[in-house]
Amino acid sequence: MIERLDHVNLRTTRLAEMVAWYGRILGLEPGPRPPFGFAGAWLYGGGNPIVHLVEISAEAARPDDLALEHAAFRATDFANFIKQLDDNDVTYRLARTPVFPIVQVNIWDPDGNHLHVDFDAAEAEGVEIAGFATSVIKPV
Description:
Layout: E1 2-12, H1 15-26, E2 29-31, E3 40-45, E4 48-55, E5 68-75, H2 78-87, E6 93-96, E7 102-108, E8 114-120, H3 121-124, E9 128-129, E10 132-133
Parallel strand pairs: 1-4, 5-8
Antiparallel strand pairs: 1-5, 2-3, 3-4, 6-7, 7-8, 9-10
């Protein structure tokens, strides 16, 4: 099950400034990032991408449109996690990360906070979910 907090995702209108600040203040360095359809940066510490920055065009317009978009956990035992969600009637959305071998299970807590639980893609291969195999999960 859950092994560690995987990363924090922050939205920003000041991508270059944020990359520089996290580097200067926390010693994080930009590193490899999947080819998402939007600008951003993954900042690494200890060899792990622990701060994900997503560039947005305007500051949040509503109080509930927060800069902290989600938190992610790294986990094992994909099949049992999916069973646990199904057994508890938890709605989830599955996605694959482009290029990187990660399957995301996106869920929302009772307050609506977005979480995703990340599994190695090999662990999800062949698992049947809602009538389709995980091999057809689309990249985010």
